[in-house]
Amino acid sequence: MTIPEILDAFPDYARDIKLNVQSVLAQSELTEQQTWTNAVACALASRNETLSQAILAEAATKLSPAQLSSAKAAFAIMQMNNIFYRFRHMVGKDDYANIPARLRMQSIRTHGGDPVDFELACLAVSTINGCEACVRSHEAVVREKGVSAEAVVASVRIASTLHAAASVIEAPLS
């Protein structure tokens, strides 16, 4: 299914989500590459196969293979890191914070895409996954690298809207 086909099948109660999906994929605050890098990472993080396949198909026409792979790497590494660092943050004890993670995270340096766009996607996925420590960390990195507050919010709009869309698709009352 294509994105328009998915959205056309949305029930009336999800009209706001349908319209928001259309608008967040065309925000002026982000470049096309940033938009689709975020969309790929967020669709995958939202764990809906129908939505993920549609977003991946569209993104393949807008991103280089390296950038598409980078978006997937942002999704994958944040699935692991968000759990680990959310645990540390939730417990809030220094003895856990001082134990090395000892988790392989090479994709953070070797993802092959634009480093700023990768970080923005990591921020968006971390928002979906509810990891405050990772959200704070990636937000600080992108802001330090010159990303505007408006672009950060635009990235989070993609996260929130695609996560909602995935939930609507999965809802038993669709």
Automatic annotation (TrEMBL):
EC number: 1.11.1.28
Active site: C131, C134
Family statement drawn from the similarity comment of this UniProt entry: Belongs to the AhpD family.
Name of the protein: Alkyl hydroperoxide reductase AhpD
Residue ranges of domain Carboxymuconolactone decarboxylase-like in the record: 95-168
Top-level lineage group: Bacteria
UniProt record, GO biological process: cell redox homeostasis; response to oxidative stress
Disulphides: C131-C134
Keywords annotated in UniProt: Antioxidant, Disulfide bond, Oxidoreductase, Peroxidase, Redox-active center
Reaction catalyzed: N(6)-[(R)-dihydrolipoyl]-L-lysyl-[lipoyl-carrier protein] + a hydroperoxide = N(6)-[(R)-lipoyl]-L-lysyl-[lipoyl-carrier protein] + an alcohol + H2O
Any one GO MF annotation of this record: hydroperoxide reductase activity
Pfam families: CMD
Job description of the protein: Antioxidant protein with alkyl hydroperoxidase activity. Required for the reduction of the AhpC active site cysteine residues and for the regeneration of the AhpC enzyme activity.
